[in-house]
Amino acid sequence: MDIHCNRCREPWDSYHLVHEAVWDAVDDLGEEACQNFGGKLTPRIKAALKDHGWEFGMTVCNVKRCPCCPDDAEIDADRAAMANAVEEIMGDDLDGIISTMDDLF
Ligand SMILES: [Zn+2]
Q: Which residues have a Cβ under 8 Å from the Cβ of 10 and sit 6 or more positions away?
């Protein structure tokens, strides 16, 4: 299932977000951290990914900025608010968040 960026609406495959996007920051995080990632964002991982154009909410399923975003792109406040609410309700249930985001958007 695809998760859309809340800023530029680029579709990202949820598998890519959970398992592969972290490798953009492998030089900062190291291979072991990337292999063990599994979609769990820590402040260190969030900061490293931000340097590579990614900004997330509480989970990788809430894309606030992606590497495809034009510099001047504004976040879609309504979509972002809904994505934040889904995360608050579902907690760290990534599969639940992915499926709910797919239904909503
Ligand atoms: Zn984007």
A: 4, 66, 68, 69
**69 CA → ligand 1 middle, Å:** 4
The CA 35 to ligand 1 mean position distance, Å, reads 24
pLDDT in tens, the chain (105 residues): 999 999 999 999 999 999 999 999 999 999 999 999 989 899 999 999 999 999 999 999 999 999 999 999 999 999 999 999 999 999 989 999 999 988 888
The pTM score is: 0.93
How is the chain split into domains, by residue range? 2-104
| Six token digits for residue 101 | 């985001």
Q: Which residues surround ligand 1, an ion (CB under 5 A)?
A: 5, 7-8, 10, 66, 68-69
**Residue whose C-alpha is closest to residue 55's, from 31, 36, 83:** 83
3-state secondary structure of 65: strand
